[in-house]
Structures are given as structure tokens and as C-alpha cells.
């Protein structure tokens, strides 16, 4: 699972829309959507902001066991 897929899964599990994260990153929803779909690169500082907004440690985006840690289903 790619980092961007994990971000999307966590965001949806926490019922947070793209607008909230776009606001936190100070970018448009369209720009955020491109980043979340992997069409534009995510900077490390952006990952930190996203992790903070989702209330998760930034390292979770790099762990293999995301579904177990968040109790998510596919």
C-alpha cells in the first residue's frame, strides 16, 4: 500500500474530507486531491501536517500493518 493510499484510508476512516487537509496545507482541494492520488509529490513537511491533522504519528504512513493498527477493513 502506497503512502498516499494510507493517507486516504486513514482520512476516510476518521471521516475527514479533503477540504480539511487542503486547508491545513494551505492549498486548494484540487491540489490536495492530486497529491492524495499520487499525481503530485508530497513533501515531508506536508506529511507532518497531514499526520497532525489526522492525529496519527507520521511513521504510520510507512508501516506495513496499517489495517491492523487502525482496525480498518479493505
TrEMBL record:
Could you tell me which InterPro entries the record lists for this protein? Cro/C1-type_HTH, Lambda_DNA-bd_dom_sf, TransReg_Diox_bact_type
Recorded superkingdom: Bacteria
Please list the residue ranges annotated as the HTH cro/C1-type domain.
Answer: 7-61
* Keyword entries, A-Z: DNA-binding
Note the Pfam families from the entry: HTH_3
**UniProt-listed Gene3D superfamilies:** lambda repressor-like DNA-binding domains
Question: SUPFAM superfamilies recorded for this chain?
Answer: lambda repressor-like DNA-binding domains (SSF47413)
Q: What is this protein called?
A: HTH cro/C1-type domain-containing protein
Q: Which organism is it from?
A: Bacillus badius
Amino acid at each position: 500500500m502506497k503512502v498516499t493510499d494510507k493517507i486516504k484510508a486513514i482520512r476516510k476512516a476518521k471521516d475527514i474530507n479533503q477540504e480539511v487537509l487542503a486547508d491545513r496545507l494551505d492549498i486548494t482541494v484540487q491540489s490536495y486531491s492530486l497529491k492524495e492520488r499520487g499525481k503530485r509529490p508530497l513533501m515531508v513537511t506536508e506529511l507532518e501536517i497531514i499526520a497532525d491533522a489526522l492525529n496519527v504519528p507520521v511513521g504510520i504512513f510507512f508501516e506495513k500493518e496499517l489495517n491492523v493498527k487502525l482496525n480498518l477493513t479493505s
